[in-house]
Design goal:
The complex is a heterotrimer. By secondary structure, chain A is mainly alpha-helical. Helix content of chain A is 71%, strand content 3%. In chain A, α3 packs antiparallel against α6 and α4 packs antiparallel against α5. The longest helix of chain A is centred in the last third of the chain and has 59 residues. Chain A is elongated. The two termini of chain A are 25 Å apart. The two termini of chain B are 23 Å apart. Chain B has one domain. By secondary structure, chain B is mostly helical. Chain C is an alpha/beta fold. Chain C folds into two domains: 146 residues, P-loop containing nucleotide triphosphate hydrolases (Rossmann fold); 64 residues. In chain C, α6 links the parallel β8 and β9. The chains are: A mainly alpha, B mainly alpha, C alpha/beta. At the A-B interface, α4 and α5 of A face α6, α7, α8 and α9 of B.
């Protein structure tokens, strides 16, 4: 009786000792190459942003516009990460498998990294164009800040030493509530200051130059490859961590059984 | 379901409030804390009466949120102190009733706190109330919003060992819309800014409704664990 | 198997208990007795294996189990700031019991009168335990799970605990208890089950021949 009650991981051989694989190597090199091309495009090909007004003044964002190729893809990756966390949390609550839990955790971490990058680059971009590091009247900026704070809280919960199932369930609920909250924050900040400095999405308004549009699209593509590369590595790290945990449980189980056997033995002896 | 849920929610709320009335932690610690925060704000803004009057709505609501953290933490600490939380699980009471009852008790405490703090703001910051109806409605709706969101997050962090530090990190960003809405509504009620107070009341009510539903639905999933 | 964090508190449980039976869990501290009792109450989850309590599956229907059992643990489950009567009254109402049930329970555990109106925080350990038991009696549980009910009590409270166990057993309830005071419940002639290092074995009793798998637990 009472053998093999846990799911057999201690004996599983062939658990890789690395998070690297052929897929991640390809993705990694693609990211690097894409990045090099992106830098070249952004600095050499895309012209600076200038416009001549009717009065004959030269206006525009000049070289600062090149920040767009970091800022906008970062924002998209952050939202992708949080969106994935939301979906994975929903899936976890539905199916209760570790896979979805690890997916939610991994994508949230990547989301926070890019969320912070979005805030930093946005702030740097805001300095020359809006003449301020931070603009409270801007809906997207404030929403992004609150969103990053919510998911930093989420990651704080993930780091608590607690029973795995309890932590996974509570984290999932926090992710769901957090995602709903982003919508509420967005609406309320919008009403709060009913004005926005942020350029309304200029992508489809044809005000944007072809070179800029192409480079921006290219930066999205590089961003997505980077995201996939990071996610694979992070997910595999999470998986290996869970394997370590399971090994520890197995070890504790052996000790516990030895304790029981020892007691049996001791009782039979005299 | 049905009336049993309301009866049980009422039972839980009554129990929580009775414990609070007996222990006097709210009266002896949370209220003095909140008043102290108001005084600190006055020190921070110097003796500028005009600034205090202008910012009174925002300062008031920041103070309420800080005090709410204590009240929410306490609501769960009382259950955890001697194993009553396990008994609640074993009682078979519908999780929706537990959530509703605890949120109601927190909301009642917040309303009492708001009344006391409101008197403090009128006295210390020299504000005058122009619209009493708006003031009362916004106060109630904001209390409901903070109580529902707070009870949900209080349950999320309860028993995790670091709940005192975790609750503020998680809850404060979430209740940011309440701070915005309630501050605007109070600015209108105090006549310090021409905000559309009643429209903001809609936001507050919507927030309370969303978190009420969300909390009631997810509370069962949180309670199913050991 | 039941995990507490990463610690496997219970590793192999093979135990059947029939309705109305009185079972004594025997074993050293840290053997897993408390976890076993909490598992039976539906407060712990099974990491693997299966179990049924009162006909309900422990993986799926823990809520159904919870409302039909009474667990007396190391903690009282009471609110220090409320009086004994208020505490017992609260848990009685939560279980749908009447005021009369409350009065009876208080009477039975010698808590009526002045003690009933005393705040639990001011009671002695023995009085607290009795108040805790009173708040369980009102639930009329079908399965009593008692974790060291005698520990740290004065003589009067010990006797009260004994009479409670006897009364519950006589009324046909199933009683599972962990205690070091073997002689106190010897009169009930309990079945002794040993718990060691997370392993639970029915004392060579009449467990069903077709008992399905390991890590299995059935309390009917």
């Amino acid at each position: 009786m009472s053998t093999a009650t846990t799911s057999s991981s201690a004996t599983r051989v062939g658990v890789p000792a690395t998070t690297s694989s052929r897929a991640t190597k390809v993705l990694g090199w693609l990211t690097l190459a894409g990045f090099a091309v992106l830098v070249a495009l952004a600095f050499a090909w895309v012209p600076e942003d200038t416009r001549i007004t009717e009065q004959g003044d030269v206006v525009g964002q000049f070289d600062a516009v090149r920040l767009m190729f970091v800022h906008v893809p970062s924002a998209i990756l952050a939202y992708t990460g949080f969106g994935l966390t939301f979906l994975a949390s929903l899936a976890y609550l539905r199916w209760r498998t570790d896979w979805w839990d690890m997916m939610a955790h991994s994508s949230a971490e990547i989301g926070v990294v890019f969320g912070v990058l979005t805030l930093v680059t946005g702030s740097i971009w805001g300095r020359p164009t809006w003449q301020t590091w931070w603009e409270w009247g801007d809906v997207r900026q404030v929403t992004a800040l609150v969103m990053v704070l919510v998911f930093i809280g989420y990651l704080a919960v993930r780091r608590i030493p607690a029973e795995a199932a309890v932590k996974a369930r509570r984290s999932a609920v926090i992710a769901l509530v957090g995602a709903v909250n982003i919508v509420i924050v967005n609406r309320s900040v919008d009403w709060w200051e009913n004005r926005t400095l942020h350029q309304q999405s200029t992508l489809f308004a044809r005000k944007i130059r072809d070179e800029t549009l192409f480079t921006l699209s290219f930066s999205f593509a590089v961003g997505m490859v980077l995201f996939a590369w990071l996610l694979l590595h992070r997910f595999r790290t999470a998986y290996l961590e869970s394997q370590i945990e399971e090994l520890e449980v197995q070890e504790a189980l052996e000790e516990r059984r030895a304790e029981a056997d020892g007691a049996d033995h001791g009782r039979e002896q005299p | 379901m049905g009336t049993a849920v309301f009866r049980d929610a009422w039972l839980i709320a009554g129990k929580d409030l009775r414990v609070e009335m007996r222990s006097r932690v709210g009266l002896n610690q949370i209220v003095p804390f909140a008043v102290t925060v108001l005084v600190l704000f006055a020190f921070a803004l110097d003796t500028d009466q005009e600034a205090l009057r202008t910012y009174a709505p925002g300062l008031f609501w920041v103070t309420v949120l800080l005090a709410a953290l204590l009240a929410i933490g306490r609501s769960f600490a009382v259950d955890l102190a001697d194993g009553a939380s396990d008994r609640l699980l074993l009682s078979g009471i519908d999780p929706i009733a537990v959530f509703g009852g605890k949120a109601l008790a927190v909301a009642v405490q917040l309303v009492v706190l708001e009344v006391l703090l409101g008197a403090g703001v009128v006295l210390l910051f020299d504000v005058t109330v122009h619209r009493y109806g708006l003031l009362v409605c916004a106060g109630l709706a904001a209390a409901a919003g903070v109580a529902t969101a707070g009870t949900l997050y209080g349950a999320l962090v309860a028993g995790l060992g670091v709940s005192e530090t975790l609750l503020p990190v998680l809850l404060l960003p979430v209740v940011a819309p309440v701070l915005i809405g309630a501050t605007r509504a109070f600015q209108d009620a105090f006549g310090v800014a021409g905000a559309e107070g009643w429209a903001w009341l809609g936001l507050l009510a919507g927030f309370a409704a969303i978190y009420g539903v969300f909390g009631a639905l997810s509370y069962g999933a949180l309670l199913e664990e050991a | 198997m039941t995990l507490l964090g990463r610690f496997p508190a219970l590793t192999g449980v093979d135990l059947d208990i029939s309705p109305g039976e009185t079972v004594l869990l025997k074993g050293p501290n840290g053997a897993g007795k408390t976890t076993l009792l909490r598992l039976c109450a539906g407060l712990c989850s099974l990491a693997s294996g299966q179990g049924w309590v009162l006909g309900h599956d422990l993986s799926e229907e823990r809520r159904m189990v919870r409302r039909r059992v009474a667990l007396l643990g190391h903690r009282t489950g009471l609110y220090d700031d409320l009086t004994v009567a208020e505490n017992v009254g609260f848990w009685a109402q939560a279980a749908g019991a009447s005021h009369q049930d409350v009065d009876e329970a208080l009477e039975r555990l010698s808590l009526a009168g002045r003690l009933a109106d005393t705040r639990v925080g001011r009671l002695s350990a023995g009085q607290r335990r009795r108040a805790s038991i009173a708040s369980l009696v009102v639930r009329r549980p079908e399965l009593w799970l008692l974790d060291e009910p005698h520990a740290g009590l004065d003589q009067q409270s010990r006797d009260t605990v004994d009479s409670l166990v006897r009364g519950a057993a006589a009324a046909g309830a199933t009683v599972v208890l962990a205690t070091h005071e073997l002689e106190r419940i010897a009169v009930l002639e309990p079945r002794v089950v040993s718990v060691v290092g997370g392993m639970v074995r029915s004392g060579g009793g009449d467990s069903e021949g077709d008992a399905p798998t390991d890590g299995d637990r059935r309390v009917s």
